[in-house]
Amino acid sequence: MSIDILQVKCDTCSEVAHEPYIECCECETNLCTSCFAAGQEIREHKNYHKYAVRRNDFPLFDNCNWSAKEECKLLSAISTHGFGNWEEVSKVVHTRSKLECHEHYKKYYIENVQYKELKLLPETEQSLFPKPITPYLYNLQVCVNPPRNNQSDQHLAGYNAYRSEFELSYDHNAENIFNIEDDYSDDEDEELMDALKVGLVKAFNTRLIERHRRYNIIKNHGLIVLNRVVSWLKRFDDTLMRAKTEKLVSFMQFMTGMQFDAFMESLSLEDELLQKIFRLSDYRKNGIKTFYSAKLYQQLKVENTLAFKEQKYLTMVMQNRFESQSQSPIKSKQYGIKDKKMKRMSMPLDIVGLPCCHLLLDSEKTLCSNLRLLPTNYLDIKGQLISENNKLGFLRLLDARRILKIDVNKTRKIYDYLMQEGFINMPPVNK
């Protein structure tokens, strides 16, 4: 337990004199309130001596709400429990939390010392003119301990930061190249065997160089935590296509991390500028020359589209009612007319200004608008079908439906268009 340096004992009863206590101004005798009220006298102290009431509730520092008693408890607790053990220090102070004890000691005893007697730490250049500390680029405290088997940290790609090595080496079978039998006879050519061994060593060094090259790429370009790289690349899905982004990842080995970031940001900015230029060109074609007019044009265009859709729907409803009332069951049986549900026609989608719209041909824009398909989704579908066609040499409609898994009617129209334009080949006819 820490000792309270302000603790005073009564000179008459030898008990702890709790505050407030009495101090004699003539003989410096300390008395508790009980002994003082009883008029106790000891040695040269008399009960008619002048006295003073003592309390330790005054502050020691300017602009501070800590009392002297709390300051003494703080210093005593730190000397007993050690600096940094603020949990135990706060229990001794009792009236302050551990955060308050930490901040108070840091402010009045380290950073802003008001008395020369408390300046225990020497002033250095770093303390007077602090320089910003450069943090680590990556967090090294990902693993709790440096285990020999790092399978629990799957997001680290098998990398152990404590040992700066990978659990599973690239081309880990490279050392097996030396597993050759050395029991040859003396009749065989020794020079030929020596040349074989030298060739094996050269091949092994080549594989080691490739292994270290890949390790340097992973470390220098932040590819250890692969999930963060993938989440960072998703930022460009709105401007750049997913397929295009995945192809650009291969360029990371030729650039530094900052260079690749600038490269991707510049491509994304280029695509945004192209979309703005295409949108401004559309405004100019419609005679719009101010931003206010463009904003009003977009608002009216949306309202017009909604009104047209509502009008089209109401027209179809009235037409269905009219046909159902005018066509009797007798006529339908007589002429073989079957009741058919009117299919609700959907309005074409306005794709002007959408991402990757400028990459489409005019016929592709019309197809996407009629199918109500976003340009980015259409380009992904087109890339998947062309890739499958290149693998097989042809593409059947059944394979296209198996790959896309969307509406069969949309799949059929996209398949017919790509077949007509020559993007995919017709399957061979079985004789």
Automatic annotation (TrEMBL):
InterPro entries for the chain: Homeodomain-like_sf, Myb_dom, SANT/Myb, SANT_dom, SWIRM, TADA2A_B-like_dom, WH-like_DNA-bd_sf, Znf_C2H2_type
Upper lineage: Eukaryota, Metazoa, Ecdysozoa, Arthropoda, Hexapoda
Any one GO molecular-function label of the UniProt entry: transcription coactivator activity
SWIRM domain sequence ranges: 340-431
Main location: nucleus
HTH myb-type domain residues: 64-113
Keywords: Metal-binding, Nucleus, Zinc, Zinc-finger
Entry's localization field: Nucleus
PANTHER family documented for this protein: TRANSCRIPTIONAL ADAPTER 2-ALPHA (PTHR12374:SF20), TRANSCRIPTIONAL ADAPTOR 2 ADA2 -RELATED (PTHR12374)
Record domain Myb-like: where: 65-109
SUPFAM superfamilies registered for this protein in UniProt: Homeodomain-like, RING/U-box
Designated name of the protein: Transcriptional adapter 2A
Residue span(s) of domain SANT: 65-113
GO biological process, one term: chromatin remodeling
Presence of keyword Nucleus: yes
GO cellular component terms given for this protein: ATAC complex; nucleus
